[in-house]
């Protein structure tokens, strides 16, 4: 599974980075980004919680 964040929808609230810092981080552009590569298997639930909690539904997990 991979996580991605749409910069068109992200409002830089940092909720995802607070809920799952192993998967999401703030970029130099001021928006959240998913880690390169696959989500660690022990962080899948946390990443899905971050996706479900995102106020603008900017997170995709595939």
UniProtKB/TrEMBL annotation:
Residue stretches making up the 4Fe-4S ferredoxin-type domain = 1-29
Q: Which GO terms describe its molecular function?
A: electron transfer activity; iron ion binding; iron-sulfur cluster binding
> Per UniProt, which keywords does this protein have?
Electron transport, Iron, Iron-sulfur, Metal-binding, Transport
Which portions of the chain have biased composition (kind: Basic and acidic residues)? 40-51
Stretch list, region Disordered? 35-62
Which InterPro entries does the annotation name?
3Fe4S_ferredoxin, 4Fe4S_Fe-S-bd, 4Fe4S_Fe_S_CS, Fe-S_cluster_ET
Pfam families from the UniProt entry: Fer4_13
* Function per UniProt: Ferredoxins are iron-sulfur proteins that transfer electrons in a wide variety of metabolic reactions.
The protein, known as: Ferredoxin
């Amino acid at each position: 599974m991979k996580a991605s964040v749409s910069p068109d929808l992200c409002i830089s609230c940092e909720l995802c980075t607070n809920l799952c810092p192993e998967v999401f981080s703030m970029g130099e552009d001021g928006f959240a980004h998913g880690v390169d590569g696959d989500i660690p298997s022990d962080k899948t639930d946390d990443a899905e919680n971050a996706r479900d909690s995102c106020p603008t539904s900017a997170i995709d997990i595939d």
